Amino acid sequence: MILSIHSVSPGGEIALVAANVPYSNVQWNRAFSTCGTFQVELACDLPVEWPGRYIVTRDDRREVGVLEKVDSSEEAGGSPPVISGRFAESLFDRWKAGTGGASCRGATWRQAATEAMLAWHMGDLPPLKVGDGCQRASGSSYAIACDEGKSGMEAIYAATAANGAYPLVTYDRDADPGRLVLEIVEGLDRTRAQSERPFWLFSLAMGTANSISYSGDYSCACSEVLAHAERDGTGDDPGESATATVAVPGFEAASQWEQRAFEDVGSLIDDEDPITQEAVSQAGLLRSYDRMASLSIECADLAGGYADGWDLGDTVDVEMPSMGLSASQRVEECREVLKKEGGTVEAVLGNKRISRVRRALMGRR
Predict the structure, then answer these.
(1) Measured distance CA(124)–CA(359) in Å, rounded
(2) β-pair partners for 38
């Protein structure tokens, strides 16, 4: 693995400043529904001037790290510097929607997400290129909304995660020098229910994992959401209001207690659109994902297959005989640790984070 550091000028020019940087420990944490993080313990002095505007790349991974923090100390025996930060999707987090919020539109969610990535960032980024999975807008029937004061990153991840995909900002100095490339990556179905590609099963019996742990929190799980929205009128206009009861996806009466949640969904309906029962039902469905049970399955000490047999965002099978568990879940996080003596990979499966970000999405079809 080759680790490199590149400088980014205030005008957006990218320049390689340190290649093949020696390291003793690399932690590379990818996530499906939010921005990933990295941390590198160097095996040398800090090779760049700090503070500064830098991105970090690996030749064997497509993510781009934005250097945000440096820790170092001088003591007997030496203490190497540690650099860390978030991946380049965090650049959308530096932009916040102003008064009244913001929205980007397209004929599909993919087009709207592409336009959002091109628009919702500050002006000091390198040139952006539309890459794989992205599409420029050819219509305006689908909208992604970013609430006032919220970051573009949150809305972009919500839109992509709700459609089984995630945004990626990548950099290839050889293929596209000087430009960051925007992509939308879709997770693949690698379960036994499909036949297009080899399936992947995390199982101790199969030797594909040495440790599997399960957490299922049903304390806040609901059976229905009572969604409501209203808008004050002006003058002779009496205003608008509507209420709808929405069933929570995945609720099973045989194994769960019924429970109702109330949600004000007015902020999810565009000001230009009327408040109808259908619009309230759509918004209530989005909020209902927050009321699903939180499921998380952690698979540790994985025996191969990473980025080949399975990857971030893929849906895979997992078995846990002690729980009587056999399920298909999405890979929500990949945690990779590289050291001189080798590396380890852990995967987190489930819906714990995905359900919480869907509420930022409001599409119109």
Answers:
(1) 30
(2) 28, 85
Both tokens of residue 300? 């540790």
Angle between helices 109-119 and 152-161 (to 10 degrees): 160
Looking at beta carbons, which pairs linking 194-202 to residues 24 or more positions away fall under 8 Å?
A: 198/309, 199/316, 199/317, 200/305, 200/309, 200/310, 200/314, 200/316, 200/317, 201/316, 201/317, 201/318, 201/319, 202/297, 202/299, 202/302, 202/316, 202/317, 202/318, 202/319, 202/347, 202/349
How many other C-beta atoms are found inside a 10 Å radius of the C-beta of residue 127? 12
pLDDT at residue number 344: 92
Q: Which two tokens stand for residue 217?
A: 């929190």
pLDDT one-digit tens code per residue, 240-286: 999 999 999 889 999 999 999 999 998 888 778 899 999 999 889 98
- Enumerate residues 6+ apart whose C-beta is below 8 A from 157: 33, 34, 35, 89, 166, 167, 357
Nearest-CA neighbor of 105 among 76, 146, 166, 64?
146
pTM of the model: 0.85
What local confidence, expressed as pLDDT, does residue 119 receive? 98
Enumerate residues 6+ apart whose C-beta is below 8 A from 228.
241, 242, 243, 262, 263, 264, 265, 266, 280
CA distance 91 to 81: 24
Q: What are the tens digits of pLDDT across the range 289-336? A: 889 888 889 998 787 899 999 999 999 999 999 888 888 999 999 999
Of the pLDDT bands very low, low, confident and very high (cuts 50, 70, 90), residue 363 is: very low
What is the identity of the amino acid at 352? Answer: K
**Whats the size of the chain, residue-wise?**
365
